[in-house]
Amino acid sequence: MPYALFADDRQIGPGLPTEAEVWKQALDASLISDLPVPDKAGGAVLLTRYHVKEIREECCAPDPAWRLPDEIS
């Protein structure tokens, strides 16, 4: 499953394969100024407003047998 960057509850970045790639892209795009660091318990200390969350990207490929009608009434 891909991960994406969220500001509050709004997705602001594309889905990427790993959480690390999401944080790196946010850093490269200057959305954040520093990467989150783990706390003593091992959890990430999240930056204000921003969080990474697993997303479900829905992909729908068209049926190759489907065709548009010749006329539209």
Task: Pick out its properties.
single chain; 73 residues; alpha+beta; three-stranded antiparallel β-sheet; two-stranded antiparallel sheet; 1 helix; 5 strands
Describe the secondary structure blueprint for this structure.
Layout: E1 3-7, E2 10-11, H1 19-28, E3 37-38, E4 44-45, E5 50-54
How is this structure best described in words?
This protein is α+β, with helices and mostly antiparallel strands. 14% of the residues lie in helices and 22% in strands. It has a 3-stranded antiparallel beta sheet with strand order 2-1-5. The protein has a two-stranded antiparallel sheet with strand order 3-4. The N and C termini lie far apart (42 Å).
Radius of gyration: 19 Å
What sequence of helices (H) and strands (E) makes up the elements?
A: EEHEEE
Number of strands: 5
SS strand fraction = 15-25%
Report the mean per-residue pLDDT as an integer: 77
Secondary structure class reads alpha+beta
Concise synopsis of the structure shown:
The protein has 73 residues and is an alpha+beta fold. The chain contains 1 helix and 5 strands.
